[in-house]
């Protein structure tokens, strides 16, 4: 930490003893937040498990309408974004602002790519009449429960997509602060917290991809 | 012992002035006070709906309103009391005000997040309440599918409001857990934590693990109504019983979000007013956590009559009995604390004793409902209504009343009059039992809950119930009057009027802006009164 240039003068809040004390507290708060995120997604995974075991035919039929190449592409995009986020965090920890800015910008770019791919997938399906069960109009479906599979698909990927957008807003926020040179080896809590959140968002997709696209 | 932090008269109430300084405050004490007034305002609204329900049921058939309006009355009563009042009642008020002071901290870990949680609560609550200006709500507080899916009322709006309030509770919970871990005073080891902190900790864990499940479930209901996803809708291939599973996975633990903080308050009050250390501190803390853990695996006891498998019902029934064991430990430990103590019958102690009685009745009747054979007979009758009012009102509200009388001098720096306090406590206690005890009898004789009408032979019991409910209301009005009077011109409260040993009493009443003039150091347990004179 010798070569640290003292740019940002971050004073820890008055109820903490030191900025280290503040950092470990924020980290614990963030892990608790991620824990509640896991529980927030959990009913969907339960619903998936129940419907899958009750109606395996619907899942077999439904997944054929999902393009595994698109899903696979998005998986690669998100894995890359996790790497670029790790780059940003390590940059902040070493007071290398340029590295932080590049890492965050790349992450933002990958997130946008993800949403663009998702947009094409969604619009293609809606065009065919593949929608949630209540608005499903695709002809030639064999299993009466297949629309339920697509309800799951839209709710799970939609909720994940909302988390991606939330993550992008957070990334823009820390990116602006990073460009103002606010982070260094002494103070980089926001970058680390946004990084943790982003890895969580990626992780959810790592589960969703095989569960929805590769289920057959 | 007392470190007078406010010799110059500066305290958190007058540290900054003006309405703006309140609305933008990040001081946990001020946020606690804002929660207190907001939650109590909703308590008033929910209470009025309760009285309207009781008025309608004073006689069979039409009494004051039609059946559709009656549906709205009990739906509002339940929704307001559960989501806007009892769930935030203790965690958001005393949790905010007392928890950091119990720990000897200057504030919660994330003060700005704390203010955000207050605004989320307010926003969600007003959104839910705004349905009154639209088409109202008519599917109770449980929003069972498919009724809530077909409802033409403003169900989507109220669900969104409840979702937002849930998020408020979650971030309050993670704030408190982090505060408890990271901001304890020197010498305040885990085995010296006041039991209120242990109770709050368990509550917060439940909030973090269970509330997100409810949040998502409510979101799915909104998606059902708006996007037609069909998870819970049998006409679209879904399953309404799945909704019940999701709902009760949250809503059973939610009972402990309501009751554990109240138990925490009783844990503080009883030793102070018995001048004895708490009986078996470790068993008390373990019982709190036992209840919190078991809470997650008993939800099926709400579904004995919903077509759940017999094996599942048997297991849920069996595990539910464990809650009784843990609760029993607590009740006996409270009694053992009082045994041979020098008891002072101040208002907090009166309320604590009311709590023990009422909650024990609630707990014992829970055994009937967790036993499959008796539950099949009692499902959806007034017996259930009486049972959960004995636990939720008898538990959470009397616990809160003990707390407000205990901490009032600390929060507002004034003493209230003991005479009217005792009268109000007696009114509520007698009125409460008069309201709900007859409902056990009516329910066990088959009077169904939520019905607009009832058979004429239940008239007498219902009239007792309605009279009791108005006694309760009078009791609360009396309480409001003498507490407001005390706020305006009560005698000045000393730093430690009850002779308590926990940290918040070491500083001035009301506390200074930073809570303690010097960082407190803990050298003894929370219930060690050997060096404190009364
Ligand atoms: Cu229950």
Topology:
The complex is a heterodimer of chains A (about 220) and B (about 525).
Chain A: H1 19-54, H2 56-63, H3 68-93, H4 97-128, H5 146-179, H6 189-213
Helix pairs in contact in A: 1-2, 1-5, 1-6, 2-5, 3-4, 3-6, 4-5, 5-6
Chain B: H1 19-23, H2 28-56, H3 67-102, H4 111-129, H5 147-150, H6 155-182, H7 195-227, H8 240-274, H9 281-294, H10 310-338, H11 347-370, H12 372-378, H13 382-412, E1 414-415, H14 418-444, H15 459-489, E2 491-492
The structure holds copper (II) ion.
Task: Please give a handful of descriptors for the protein shown.
heterodimer; A: 216 residues; mainly alpha; Four Helix Bundle (Hemerythrin (Met), subunit A); 6 helices; disordered N terminus; B: 534 residues; Cytochrome C Oxidase, Chain A; 66% helix; binds copper (II) ion
Overall SS class of chain B: mainly alpha
Q: From the 3D coordinates, which CATH architecture of chain B would you assign?
A: Up-down Bundle
Portion in beta strands of chain B: under 5%
Largest sheet of chain A: none
Which structural class do you get from the secondary structure elements of chain A?
mainly alpha
* Name of the CATH architecture of chain A: Up-down Bundle
Model description:
The complex is a heterodimer of chains A (216) and B (534). By secondary structure, chain A is mainly α. Chain A has helices spanning 19-54, 56-63, 68-93, 97-128, 146-179, 189-213. Chain A has one domain: Up-down Bundle (Four Helix Bundle (Hemerythrin (Met), subunit A)), CATH 1.20.120. Helix content of chain A is 75%, strand content 0%. Residues 1-8 of chain A have low confidence and may be disordered. With 534 residues, chain B is mainly alpha-helical. Chain B has a single domain (26-506), classed as Cytochrome C Oxidase, Chain A (Up-down Bundle). Chain B has 15 helices and 2 strands. In chain B, strands 1-2 form a two-stranded antiparallel ribbon. The longest helix of chain B has 36 residues, at 67-102. Residues 1-7 of chain B have low confidence and may be disordered. At the A-B interface, helix 1 and helix 5 of A face helix 6, helix 7 and helix 8 of B.
């Amino acid at each position: 930490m010798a070569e640290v240039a003292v740019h940002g003068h971050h004073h820890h809040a008055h109820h903490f003893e030191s900025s280290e004390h503040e950092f470990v507290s924020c980290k614990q708060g963030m892990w608790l937040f991620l824990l509640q995120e896991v529980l927030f997604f959990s009913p969907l995974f339960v619903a998936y498990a129940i419907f899958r075991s009750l109606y395996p035919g619907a899942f077999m039929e439904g997944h054929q309408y999902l393009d595994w190449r698109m899903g696979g592409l998005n998986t690669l995009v998100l894995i890359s974004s996790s790497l670029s986020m790790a780059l940003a965090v390590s940059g902040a920890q070493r007071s290398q602002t340029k590295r932080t800015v590049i890492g965050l910008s790349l992450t933002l770019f990958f997130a946008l790519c993800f949403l663009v791919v998702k947009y094409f997938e969604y619009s293609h399906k809606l065009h065919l009449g593949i929608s949630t069960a209540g608005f499903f109009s695709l002809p030639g479906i064999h299993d009466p429960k297949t629309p339920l599979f697509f309800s799951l698909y839209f709710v799970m990927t939609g909720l994940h997509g909302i988390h991606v957008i939330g993550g992008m807003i957070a990334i823009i926020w820390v990116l602006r602060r990073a460009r103002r040179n606010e982070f260094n080896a002494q103070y980089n809590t926001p970058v680390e917290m946004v990084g943790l959140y982003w890895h969580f968002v990626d992780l959810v997709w790592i589960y969703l991809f095989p569960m929805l696209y590769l289920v057959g | 012992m007392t470190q007078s932090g406010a010799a110059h008269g500066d305290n958190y109430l007058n540290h900054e002035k003006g309405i703006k300084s309140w609305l933008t405050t990040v001081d946990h004490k001020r946020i606690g006070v804002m929660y207190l007034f907001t939650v109590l305002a909703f308590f008033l609204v929910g209470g009025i709906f309760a009285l309207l329900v009781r008025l309608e049921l004073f006689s069979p058939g039409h009494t004051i309103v039609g059946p559709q309006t009656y549906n709205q009355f009990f739906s509002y009563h339940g929704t307001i009391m559960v989501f806007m009042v009892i769930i935030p009642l203790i965690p958001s008020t005393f949790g905010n005000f007392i928890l950091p002071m119990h720990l000897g901290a200057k504030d919660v870990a994330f003060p700005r997040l704390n203010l955000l949680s207050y605004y989320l609560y307010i926003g969600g609550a007003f959104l839910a309440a705004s349905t009154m200006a639209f088409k109202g709500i008519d599917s109770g507080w449980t929003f069972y599918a498919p009724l809530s899916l077909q409802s033409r009322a403003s169900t989507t709006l109220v669900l969104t409001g409840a979702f937002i309030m849930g998020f408020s509770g979650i971030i309050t919970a993670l704030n408190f857990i982090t505060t408890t871990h990271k901001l304890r005073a020197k010498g305040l080891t885990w085995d010296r934590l006041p039991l209120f902190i242990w109770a709050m900790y368990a509550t917060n864990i439940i909030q973090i693990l269970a509330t997100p499940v409810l949040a998502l479930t409510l979101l799915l209901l909104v998606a059902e109504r708006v996007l037609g996803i069909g998870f819970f809708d049998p006409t679209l291939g879904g399953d309404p019983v799945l909704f019940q599973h999701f709902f009760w996975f949250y809503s059973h633990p939610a009972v402990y979000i309501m009751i554990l903080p109240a138990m925490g308050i009783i844990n503080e009050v009883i030793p102070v007013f018995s001048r004895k250390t708490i009986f078996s501190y470790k068993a008390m803390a373990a019982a709190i956590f036992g209840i919190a853990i078991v809470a997650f695996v008993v939800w099926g006891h709400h579904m004995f009559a919903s077509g759940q498998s017999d094996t599942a019902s048997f297991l849920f029934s069996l595990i539910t009995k464990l809650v009784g064991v843990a609760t029993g430990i607590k009740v006996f430990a409270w009694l053992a604390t009082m045994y041979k103590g020098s008891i002072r019958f101040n208002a907090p102690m009166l309320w604590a004793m009311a709590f023990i009685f009422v909650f024990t009745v609630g707990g014992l009747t829970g055994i009937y409902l967790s036993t499959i054979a008796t539950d099949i007979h009692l499902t959806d009758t007034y017996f259930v209504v009486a049972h959960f009012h004995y636990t939720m009102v008898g538990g959470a509200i009397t616990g809160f009343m003990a707390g407000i009388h205990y901490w009032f001098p600390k929060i507002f720096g004034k003493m209230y009059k003991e005479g009217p306090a005792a009268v109000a406590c007696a009114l509520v206690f007698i009125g409460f039992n008069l309201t709900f005890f007859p409902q056990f009898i009516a329910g066990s004789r088959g009077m169904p809950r939520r019905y607009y009408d009832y058979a004429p032979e239940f008239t007498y019991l219902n009239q007792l119930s309605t009279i009791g409910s108005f006694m309760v209301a009078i009791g609360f009005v009396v309480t409001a009057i003498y507490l407001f009077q005390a706020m305006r011109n009560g005698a000045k409260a000393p730093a430690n009027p009850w002779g308590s040993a926990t940290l918040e009493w070491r500083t001035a009443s009301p506390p200074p802006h930073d809570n303690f003039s010097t960082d407190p150091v803990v050298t003894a347990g929370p219930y060690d009164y050997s060096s404190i004179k009364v």
